[in-house]
Amino acid sequence: MIFAGNFKTNHTRQSTALYIKELTQKTKAKKEEDRIILFPPLTAIDDYESDFTIGVQNAYHIQNGAYTGEIGLEQLDEFGIKTILIGHSERREHLGESQELLTQKFNFFKEEAFEIIYCIGEPLEVRKKGFEAVMKYLLAQFDGIDIAYDKLIIAYEPIWAIGTGRSATVEEISSTHRALKNVIKETALLYGGSAKLSNIKEILSIAGVDGVLVGSASLDADGFSKMVLA
Ligand code: PGA
Asked: What CATH number has the domain bearing residue 133?
């Protein structure tokens, strides 16, 4: 299973270093095949001594250049970063990242052989329209994306379940993952959206779920370690 923690705009450089130490200690008993990927804020990116994969929540699709406020490949290379999150709903919504821009990012980082965790997810009004509408919406988020890329992990994150404390139901996750797997085949598929200690076992037992992308519940190392060991 894959346990990915997305810190978003939380934690500092100092607290991330402490977090990684604590999580390393507390996940010593994890299964060998279980993998932990962490996405700290950019200021906390470093070449940490740990078994965890450190990735970035965002970067610009450029080596370097005049892109005020962004970081590019050169800055990632300095810390040996080879994993990136692309398409998170918060970047699509709040930062206005279009499918076209996401495609450019995807292609650039694919070209650089990055592991890409690509997020898709529907808003509540689409979910309310029914399953067919949901699938149509989700599949449109694959436009321009090479879903056969061998270093790709997909995260299904219904927007209405993110940060709300209300995860999707087992039935909603199960039917959506099954339909997505028909399309993406062997590619790993994570679920995200209010995954936490109280529902992790249930979520991971669903067929077609290869792991979780966790926001809020990943912020505390002790709590996240319990999810990994659950
Ligand atoms: P959440 O966030 O676990 O706080 O719902 C998940 C995510 O946005 O990746």
From this structure: 3.20.20.70
Residue 193 in contact with ligand 1 by CB distance below 6 A: yes
Task: Give the ligand 1 atom nearest the CA of 119.
Answer: 9
Please give the positions annotated as active site: 88, 157
Q: Is the CB of 192 under 6 A from ligand 1?
A: yes
- How do residues 42-98 score in pLDDT, each as one tens digit? 999 998 989 999 999 999 999 999 999 999 999 999 999 999 999 999 999 999 999
Residue 181 lies in a domain: yes
Neighbours of 130 (CB within 10 A): 9
Q: Is residue 64 part of a domain?
A: no
Query: Each residue of 110-148: pLDDT tens digit?
Result: 999 999 999 999 999 999 999 999 999 999 999 999 999
Q: What is the pTM of this model?
A: 0.97
Q: Which of 10, 86, 94, 157 to mutate to test the pocket of ligand 1 (most atoms within 8 A of CB)?
A: 157
